[in-house]
Design brief:
This protein has 421 residues and is mainly α. The protein has a single domain, classed as MFS general substrate transporter like domains (Growth Hormone, Chain: A), CATH 1.20.1250. Helix 7 packs antiparallel against helix 11 and helix 14 packs antiparallel against helix 15. It is globular and about 55 Å long. One of its GO terms (molecular function) is transmembrane transporter activity. Pfam families: MFS_1. It is a multi-pass membrane protein.
């Protein structure tokens, strides 16, 4: 592959992308595939149905728990061995769910499984940025987003079909076995990007720092206003979608009386819309800079959320709510990978630590926001969900506006278009 930044062959580069894609897909499937069974799980463990959104939010919190450590460790010891460790942890936690015998054990395993998401954010994303050039890296991030979205798109439907034949425990065992395949792919194909001389003659040396130095670097990042704005905005922009994933089993199956298959079918328009947004992003990258792409994305993003508020006020039917969510989702798909890239390079610090901080801030924002929406009545009716989810998403607009101000200079690699072509 001629457009890589380090010396890897086309076959190895393809294998690396496929292995990361499988691992990322599994980290999402571990949540979405089992969502149609969550009411069965709480019933089997004789637990309250409030554990349905709690288990999902625990999964998100798990994605935050280790990122503060994973990022610096990958800067020091290399991305490859850290990502292999994360894939192994994820696979073992999934397989262990087969043997869970209480809701507390199940929730603990959800937390451990969510840590796999942290390895994806803090290790694999920086590795992609270091292996591939800017335009290719953004396209690959968008493509990974599309593949990951196959999970909430097909996961509930596939889960509802599989659950007619096998138990939810067997589903988790299958995820553990699939994670073993992803581990083998990463072991065979993932290149090391730390300490390797790149094609342009530059080298990203290992970053050795003690706990005090690492803490100082994190504090310096948190003092970077532009970086903080972009990271929080990433979480708030995804909040309506995350809240929908966590609460839709209660809203559609328990409150609206839909079957698990009907619930799964209503997910399709929303996640197809995010995929459409990612495809539009790929087309826009040919002629437009990343900040311009984000500004274009804000139109469907804002119109969809405003329409969502309208459905809450007018108590519109479910199809109208889904249409509003889908319009918002197009804008989210257009902007997410571009905003992530800009956030990653808003600081000159090592990308493992920077990516970990982005992940911790954005995922914590989504997890806390989703829990708050559930606590203030978002799970009690479709109208309440639509209102609070839309307001949460709109809170990102001032942050995005400040981040994209012309006075906030971008690095040359991001400000010019020549690297996009």
């Amino acid at each position: 592959m001629q457009r890589t930044l380090i010396h890897v062959g086309p076959g190895q580069a393809l294998g690396f992308c496929l292995a990361i894609t499988l691992f990322e897909l599994l980290t999402y499937m571990a949540s979405d595939l089992v969502m149609p069974a969550m009411l069965t799980i709480t019933s089997e463990f004789k637990a309250d149905t409030r554990h349905v959104p709690y288990a999902f939010n625990l999964y998100l919190i798990g994605g935050v728990c280790l990122q503060w450590l994973i990022g610096p460790l990958s800067d020091r010891f290399g991305r490859r061995r850290i990502l292999l460790s994360g894939c192994a942890l994820f696979g073992i936690a999934c397989a262990a769910a087969f043997f869970s015998n209480s809701i507390e054990t199940f929730n603990l395993l959800r937390l451990l499984q969510g840590m796999g998401l942290g390895f994806i954010v803090a290790v694999s994303y920086p590795a992609l940025q270091e292996v591939f050039r800017e335009a290719d890296a953004v396209r690959l991030m968008a493509l990974l987003g599309n593949v990951a979205l196959l999970s909430p798109l097909l996961g509930p439907l596939l889960g509802s079909l599989l659950l007619e034949w096998i138990s939810w425990r067997t589903l988790f065992l299958g995820l553990g076995l699939a994670a073993a395949v992803a581990w083998l792919g990463l072991y065979a194909c993932m290149p090391e990007t730390i300490g390797v001389v790149r094609n342009d003659g530059q080298q990203q040396a290992p970053v050795a720092s003690n706990a005090r130095q690492t803490g100082q670097r994190y504090l310096a990042l948190l003092a970077n206003g532009r970086f903080l704005q972009a990271s929080i905005a990433l979480g708030l922009m995804s909040l309506p979608l995350i809240a929908w994933i966590g609460l839709s089993p209660l809203l559609l199956m328990q409150l609206s009386g839909l079957s698990s298959r009907e619930y799964a079918l209503w997910q399709i328009p929303v996640f197809c819309a995010v995929i459409a947004g990612n495809l539009i992003l790929d087309r826009l990258l040919v002629r437009h800079s990343l900040p311009q792409v984000i500004r274009f994305a804000l139109w469907p993003f804002c119109l969809g959320l405003i329409a969502l508020i309208g459905t809450a006020v007018s108590s519109a039917a479910l199809p109208v709510l889904i249409a509003s969510l889908s319009l918002y989702a197009i804008g989210l798909g257009m902007s997410n990978a571009a905003l992530y890239r800009l956030a990653l390079f808003a600081s000159d610090d090592s990308k493992g630590l920077v990516s970990a901080t982005i992940g911790m801030i954005s995922i914590a924002t989504m997890g806390a926001g989703g829990s708050l929406i559930a606590a203030i009545g978002g799970a009690s009716s479709l109208d309440n969900f639509a209102l609070w989810a839309a307001l949460g998403g709109l809170l990102s607009l001032p942050l995005v506006r400040r981040f994209l101000r012309p006075s906030s200079s971008l690095t040359p690699a991001l400000a010019t278009r020549k690297d996009i072509h």
